[in-house]
Amino acid sequence: PATARGRWIAEATVEATRAQWSMRSARLEWAAWIRWSDSEARLRRDGLTAEAMELAGVEGWWARHAYTRATVLRPGFAAGVLARTRTRVQECGAWLVASSAADATASLLDVGARFERMALSLDELGLAAHPMTQLLETPGGAEALSEALSLGETPRLLVRLGYARTG
């Protein structure tokens, strides 16, 4: 990230990731949501797959065949997630923050709809959007982001933007 604000978001995202993964409850939640095997992903049709976590090639094959829910609870897994987060926030071309003033359901749905429209437009341009909401999920994170960017509203979505990988 080339700007001071971009660097702040990157650093805050890494710190929020570290804070989340230091909590056993967060690791348990992740373990429940990851679908390591292709068969579990087809069966459940929810959660996160290896592909969704950008695990490709040999690394992706290994994850799909050797990882289990217990893998997520190992200390080394959290260290790997933190290392990947550090790399990903540095690969970011820009950050997008979607915010709203109201907590009303209609306002939150509007934020989601605006993100979907933007994501479709990005795809047409060969760009990619990767939600990285760790900061918003960490106590005080949304308030800190709002203050750092002088939003005057509550941030609802934090997304890193960049060129999509091809082939």
Q: Supply Rg.
A: 17 Å
- Supply the number of helical segments: 9
Strand content: 15-25%
The largest sheet has its strands arranged as 3-5-4
Structural class: alpha+beta
List the helices and strands and how they pair.
Layout (H helix, E strand, L loop, with lengths): L3 H18 L2 H10 E2 L2 H7 L3 E2 L7 H10 L2 H4 L2 H16 L3 E7 L4 H20 L2 E5 L2 H4 L3 H9 L4 E10 L4
Parallel strand pairs: 1-2
Antiparallel strand pairs: 3-5, 4-5
Helix pairs in contact: 1-6, 1-9
Describe, in plain words, how this protein is organized in 3D.
There is one protein chain. The chain has 167 residues and is an alpha+beta fold. The protein contains nine helices and five strands, in the order H-H-E-H-E-H-H-H-E-H-E-H-H-E. The strands form two sheets. Strands 3-5-4 form a three-stranded antiparallel beta sheet, with helices on both faces. It has a two-stranded parallel ribbon with strand order 1-2. Strand 1 (34-35), helix 3 (38-44) and strand 2 (48-49) form a beta-alpha-beta unit. Helix 1 (4-21) runs antiparallel to helix 6 (75-90) and helix 1 (4-21) runs antiparallel to helix 9 (141-149). The longest helix is centred in the last third of the chain and has 20 residues, at 105-124. The two termini are 25 Å apart. The model has no long low-confidence stretch (mean pLDDT 91).
